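Here is one chain, start to finish.
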Amino acid sequence: MKKYLDIDVYQAVNQRLKFIFENFDNIYVAFSGGKDSGLLLNLLLDYKRKHNIKKKIGVFHQDFEAQYKLTTEFVTRMFQNNLDDIEPYWVCLPMGSRCAVSNYQMYWYPWDPDKKDLWVREMPDFPYVINLDNNPLEFYKYKMVQEDLYAEFGYWYAKHHQGSSICLLGIRADESLNRFRAYANEHKVLIEDKQWTAKMGDNFYNAYPLYDWTTKDVWVANGKFGFDYNKIYDLFYKAGLSINQMRVASPYHEAAKESLNLYRVLEPDTWVKVVGRVQGANFGAMYGATKLLGSRRITLPKGHTWRSYVKFLLATLPEAMRRNYIEKFKTSIRFWWKRGGVVSEDAIKELEACNYPIKRNGLTHYRSAKEAVRFLGTPDSTDDIKSTIDIPSWKRMAVCILKNDHLCKHMGFAQTKQQSLREKELLNKYRNL
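Its structure:
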């Protein structure tokens, strides 16, 4: 296992768990059924038993309905085999989940009662499964966004347990830039200067005890300590995937759409239901890893500029989706035209050398010593700029459309509070249609 100075990551995580048990009254794990959260739950239970700790551990599992049978089997084992040590929350409520395989819907809704005949699998039948018939989560709103349900559960858990509460997440910094940012964020409030923690509310915290683990470390630990794990990873290995390519996620999510076709190969019976559950799933399975959906290097069709290609792509979309993209693109163009964004001096010199229509805007109130740059017109493409990708272009807009990137994350957007509120209003308005 990876070592820092005189300690390896296994010793380090046990020190963190010791701190957590000594300083928090209530602990729960966000358990997805994947390798990281599975390992974290195993490590936590192992530590609890070795030190004869009697308090039960909360286990929160958000069930997305469409998943591998082997994932369901692993989740079931982890709940059923540890009931003496855990406080189970297996959530099977309709929730808005991002859909990156369709141009016709931004979300799909696991456990939607109106689509029961299309459910990929039957509702789990355990007394601790939370569904519409027995829901104790008073914050829940019908078909609320999945990320909001996850976040609100933490506050609900802290409210309904006396004392301090903490949520443990199996986030590793080396898995993605966003996960590294969750760890490295300089603006979060820490517990005793521990960078792997974050204050979320009164007496409620998050912690990332596995932040410094590698994928290899995860599998070494599972093998060395004989921990149970999701056996879908064995099939991933037999299918030729590297350990860094193996992901367990909602099959329609942007993080998993490139591997959607694996359902067809690994679990054909599940695939038949997955492909019929969401419009566009079959297309996503066939082309999710190709340039048709922006996953490989895309090329410009003959006779088009990137700007004209964006207009062509927009014209092919349903009205609601077209308006969504147009609003995002207009916001980006206005931002770079009027306010400008910060880029490095190397990038500015490169832009000037390539004769891009830019104007230096001086230092800004951004938390950065870099100079802001305004674009006097949006470039068609910025492929010849090597020092940064964080500059606007019509090509980046085209990639967003091809990826079904409804939030335009490829252009640096995130969901705004206003969008989230508007989204909730619409879901509530049309819930009974």
